[in-house]
Every structure is written in C-alpha cells, then in structure tokens.
Amino acid sequence: MKFRTLLFSLLIASTPILAQTAPEPKSLPANKNGMIKVGTGELYYEMAGNGPTVVLLHAGLLDSRMWDGQFESLAKKFTVVRYDARGHGKSSVPDGPFAHFKDLQLLLNGLGIRKATLVGLSLGARTALDFALAYPDMVEAIVAVSPGASGVDFKDAVILEDMKGSQEAIKKQDWDGFIEFFQRAWTDGPKRQPSDVDPAVRERVRVMARENLEKGRSAKGRIAELGAFPRLAELKVPILVIVGQLDSSDIHAVADALVEKANAKKVVVEGAGHMVNLEKPKEFDRLVAEYLANLPSRS
C-alpha cells in the first residue's frame, strides 16, 4: 500500500494500543447499544433520545468517544446514533476488503433508520460524502467538520512532512513517535506548536489514537471509496461545513470546494485546528444546534 494511502487508512479505517483507557463519561443518555453485523465484521453502536435521527461519525484513529459531549446534548432533541468504524473502538478489525460508506448503510438498515443527518469529522466527513453519493435518499443533511474527501491529494508541505515522519516511525515500529506525528498533523496542525494546544485535548486524542493504533495493526484488506472530490457537484443535500481557522490548507481546500460545487455553507471557527468539537465544544455545539433547528424539514 502506498504511504499516501497508509495514513488515510489509519485515519480512515483501521487501528487501538496499550492498556491506558480514556475516562468513561459520568452519565450518557444511551438507551440502546450493541453490535450490528456488517459483511464479515461488526460495528459497535450507541443510540439515545427521540426525534429526527442524527448520526455522529468520528475521525480516523479516534472513536465514538470523541462525541461524548455532543451525544449527550443532541439526545435531548434528536435520536442520536454514534458508532465505532471498523478497526476502531469496540468494532471488529477488518479481515478483508470493505467500505466505510457501505458499513454505514448496513448499520442504518439494521437499526431501521431510513433517513438521517450525518455529522462527521475528518474521516467521518469523508465517509458521509461517499455515503451521500451512494445513498442520497438516506441523507437529510450533512455537517462536514474538518472535512476529508475521497479522491483528494495532500499538498500542505507541513502535513506532508509529518506524514514522512510517520512513515519513518512505522518502519522503526516507534509507535509513540507515530502518535506524536499524528498529533502534530491533526491535533496541533501546521500553524501551531504542541504547547499552543490545550494539554487536555492533546491527551484525549493521544489515548484514543494509541488504543486504535494497536488494534488496527492486525487489519487486512483495502478500503473501497467512491472518489468523491471530483464528484462534489453531484451532492444535492444541504451541507454545513465547519472548519478550524488553524487547520491544514488541504482541509480548507476541501471545504471551499464543497461551497463552490455543492449546496454548502462554510463556517470558520477561530482559534481551532482539526479537532474542532474537542477544542471549541461550546461554539461547535451552538453551530450544529442552530443548523439542525433551521433545516427545512425534519423527517
């Protein structure tokens, strides 16, 4: 597998490590959870609340815990589903070819959900865009946060340098080093030093990424995607794009392309990098709540 796709595989589909775990939330309104069969694998999900359905899709190398705050708050007004993508969290490790967008379709079918608004960050947004191309009738709207898109190439020189460092760390089996390069690229971003980022945010990301890195190291198979980037004009659903001011130029380029080619509106969160909901939770929650409240129809 070429390295350019390797980090995306880690950001996208596969990989947990070590015994340290993130603290469990004190109280979440989960009223249903379990495993759903998806092809040869299983996805762990949690569902809570009542009302129109909102599905939370996590970033690569992280898992559904990154949505702890949003899961609790959104469940007050919506039916909220969060789940671990294959190779992440409590879900199974891939043992052959699969597709994140197809897994999402199988999950929703298994839960009896015909239509939903998708809120995805990074890999989650990448999956949401592929899903909307494949199953447009199942998508009411999308909130694409720090959006990736299948079929796009990295160009940001700082991110490419961090990827090079990640590749060297993998060759040396230096997993601590790999996680630090991951943090530099996707928690700190190209415009900040680690000392500029809230240590609690960095630690929360580190714990999830370490666990998921170890898990995904045993993954097999390739990830099928739809090459969404050159097809953005095909997207007809309303899209809110949320991007951190300090995120990579590559992520801003995807956000701008969505505004130019699709039915999208872009909001920039000042002082935030890639992990917008972790760094600026109050502002993020407000933006999402206002957007959901103003959708033309809620089915």
Keywords:
299 residues; alpha/beta; Rossmann fold; eight-stranded mixed β-sheet; 10 helices; 8 strands; 17% strand; disordered N terminus
Q: Which CATH class of the domain at 27-153 and 222-293 applies here?
A: Alpha Beta
CATH superfamily of the domain at 27-153 and 222-293: Alpha/Beta hydrolase fold, catalytic domain
Shape: globular
**Mean of all residue-level pLDDT scores:** 90
Note the main sheet: 8 strands, mixed
Element pattern in H and E: HEEEHEHEHEHHHEHEHH
Helical percent range? 25-40%
Q: How do the strands of the widest beta sheet line up side by side? A: 1-2-4-3-5-6-7-8
- Total strands: 8
Structure characterization notes:
This protein has 299 residues and is of the alpha/beta class. The chain has a domain at 27-153 and 222-293: 3-Layer(aba) Sandwich (Rossmann fold). It contains ten helices and eight strands. A hairpin with a 2-residue loop joins strand 1 and strand 2 (41-48). Helix 3 crosses helix 4 (123-134) and helix 6 (175-188) packs across helix 7 (199-216). The radius of gyration is 17 Å and the shape is globular. The model is unreliable at 1-29 (pLDDT under 50).
